[in-house]
Amino acid sequence: MGRLAKSDDPALVTRLVDTYRSHYRGSLVTDASREALFPRAFEALGRLRQDSSKQLGIATGKGLTGVRRILQLHGLTDYFVTLQTPDHNPSKPDPGMLLTAMAETSSSPKETIMVGDTTFDLEMGRAAGVRTIGVTWGYHDPAELIPFADAMIDSYDDLDGAIQRVLE
Q1: 41 CB contacts (<8 Å, ≥6 apart)?
Q2: pLDDT tens for residues 96-120?
Q3: Pfam families under this entry (predicted)?
Q4: Which residues have a Cβ under 8 Å from the Cβ of 135 and sit 6 or more positions away?
Q5: The CATH number of the domain covering residues in 36-167
Q6: Is residue 84 within 8 Å of 98, Cβ to Cβ?
């Protein structure tokens, strides 16, 4: 929040975080579609889960309680071997979430990929020394992601090929 507000005032950052959390929690009660998956995400996760050489993890700015709720809502609870949130890590773009995820899964940076829709996601990936895939849907304009991405995709249908390319 400090980065978004361009301020290092701890009182302001705390107030912004508290206000954001309050509005977010309220939206969960009034907006049932708020936590829908992006098109073709479920199918892509299913394909990746079937590949025994891959482990899936989450590194998100959402709180752990919310992540678990979303995974349960969509039947994805057992898909991920590591869940990293700001509850126990520094916020993005600090590499802490990815470093913890790699430690938990005994993975190295050269075999890890961060897929994201924000510059914060891809900056975190770069800071952790992993490869990055940007998506053209989501929170940030694709043009903002390109400088931080090893590959860009327009659909989850393109994810498998992008993973293969960036790992080569």
Answers
A1: 156
A2: 999 999 999 999 999 999 999 999 9
A3: HAD_2
A4: 115, 116, 117, 142, 145, 152, 153, 154
A5: 3.40.50.1000
A6: yes
